[in-house]
Structures
1.
Amino acid sequence: LLSVSGPDPDKAESYLAAIDSVAAFHAIDVSQLQPELTFRRLQIAVIRNNPDAINRCVDQLRSMTGPYAEAADRLLFRRAQRLLEASPADAVAAREVVRFGVRVLDGLSADASSASTVRDGVAMAAAVLWDLEQDKAMRDLALSLDRAQDAAGVRTLSALRRHARLAESAGEIEEAGRVWSTLASSVDAASPAWFEARYEAMRLLSMIDLAKAREAMT
C-alpha cells in the first residue's frame, strides 16, 4: 500500500493498527518487526508531511540498526532535497539535506554508484548554508565533498563552479584557479562558460603571479 505510485496511508495505517491489536491480544512478540513497522509509520508521516511524527519515528529508528534505519535516512534525504528544490533559500531544508545526506554517505562505500550523487546533493546544500549564513563548517564540508568528487573524476559544470567559488572563499587561490582552468577545458572554446572560466582563472592568477596573468591575457 505504501509502495505503489498512489500510496494509501490511511489503509496502510489501519493494517499497522491491526498488527498491534493482534499482537497484543495473542501476546505475540513482534520486537523483531519493530524496525520495519517504524519505517512504515515514517513513510506514512512523510506522505502526510507530519514533522512531529517524522521526528518521533526518526528518534525510534536511530536506536535501531539495520536496513530500515538506513532506508529511513535515504527517504528523508530525498524528502529534504525536494523541499530545497522547491525553496532554494530554505536553510532548514538545506540542513536536513546535510543531516541525512551525511548519514547516507556514512553507509556507502566511496566508490558506490550512488555515492557521487549523494556527495553532490550534500555539497550543494552545505554551500547554500554558507551563502545564507556564512557557516564556515558547511563551507568546509562542501569543499571536502567537491574535492572528493574531483578525485573520483566526477566533474559537472555546477560542481566545478561551486568548488572554485568555495575554494577561493577559503583562501585556496591556487586550487580555485586550477578548478576554473579545468572547467574551461571541459566546455566549448569561446562559449560563455569558457569565457567565464578563463576570466576567473586569470583573475586568480593575477593574485599569485602578475606576469603569468598578463601572459595568459595576451
Note: The longest helix spans residues 67-86.
2.
Amino acid sequence: MRRLAENMSGIEGVRVPDVDGTRSARRVLTMEFIRGVKISDVAAMEAAGIDRDVVARNFLRAIIKQVLVDGFFHADPHPGNVLVDARDGTIVFLDLGLIGQLNRDQRLDRLDLMWSVVQKDATGIAAVVTRMSTQRGTVDPD
C-alpha cells in the first residue's frame, strides 16, 4: 500500500489509504477508513455532482502509470476495490492483497503491442504477442 501510495502521489485525484501501523501486524493490515461509492455507481456520482469524465481520465492515468511506467500495479481493481470520494471525486484504491509487477521489457512489450494495434500492424502484433508468450512446443511462425 505504501509503495502504491508513493507511486500515485503525483496523480491528481487519485490516492491510496494510509496504513495504520499501530493496529497492523504480520497477518493483519489496518488502513484508514474510507468513505466513498463504488467507481461503477454512476447514479451516486451524478447525485454528488462528480464529473465522471474527470474520474475516468484520472483512473486511466493511474492504471497507465501503474502498469506501463512503474511496473507495479493493483492487480484486482474491481468496483469493490476502487472507490470514489463523493465529496471531491478522488479515486481511492483499496485492498492491495493482489499486486502485479512487470519488468522494463514487459512494460515495453505492452507499449509495442498498443502501438502495433493503433497502427493496424498485424505483423507487429503477431511479433509482440509471440514475444510475450510462453512457447510450449514447436511454433510455426507462418
Note: The helical segments are 2-8, 42-47, 52-70, 104-118, 122-132.
